[in-house]
Amino acid sequence: MDMPLPGDEPAPPPVPLAVRAQLLATEHWGLLASRSTTQAEVLTRISIFLTLVSAGLVSLALLGQVTRFAGPFPGFAVAVLGIVALMGVLTQVRVSNVGMDDLMYVLAMNRLRAAYVDIDPGVAPYLMASTHDDFAGTTRTYYFLGRRSGASQLLGSSTIFIVAVNAALVGLLVAAIIFTVAGAVVASAFGIVAGVAYILVSLALGVRQFAAAWAAHTPLNPSPADAG
Fold first, then answer.
1. pTM across the whole model
2. What CA–CA distance (Å, rounded) separates 126 from 120?
């Protein structure tokens, strides 16, 4: 009996469309579950951080009343603000990573919707979320009703919220350190500069991370306007 030569094996039968749809739906539900879990985790992290900030500021206020903001108060303020600011930076890193993770999930689900449309083109008019895995597609998926300004999207994000809180904490920390060797006016000036610098550096790093992610991404189903 002759043995089949390499390459002579029969082609596998085509996968039924129903099986393809089931496989895609399974992947879609997995992405949704991962996205929900990630969002819930970061919201809990933000809540813990804000509780820590509140507790730290209240403790400083109570100690200030007892010590009349003299004696051990400056050192205690620097220690508390340093710890809270450190937790804030760690929280900000996590929030930024989750924002990029969310973009990743949206891109993946957009690509799956394109596969659904390939299976049944008739469902395309009923999908409000985009089927294009590019920047324009993610913008459509994040907001169905026309266009939302980039400034509104940015200023309303959790990342900017955490950056603002951390900038205030860093400013207070720097002011507290400077206050131990200089006057209140000089300390306030240094604190404001430090807070503004923190915001600018955070924004620059965020833009760099966002741009690097898009530079590394190759859309499989780009929007018509971006197809070229």
1. 0.86
2. 12
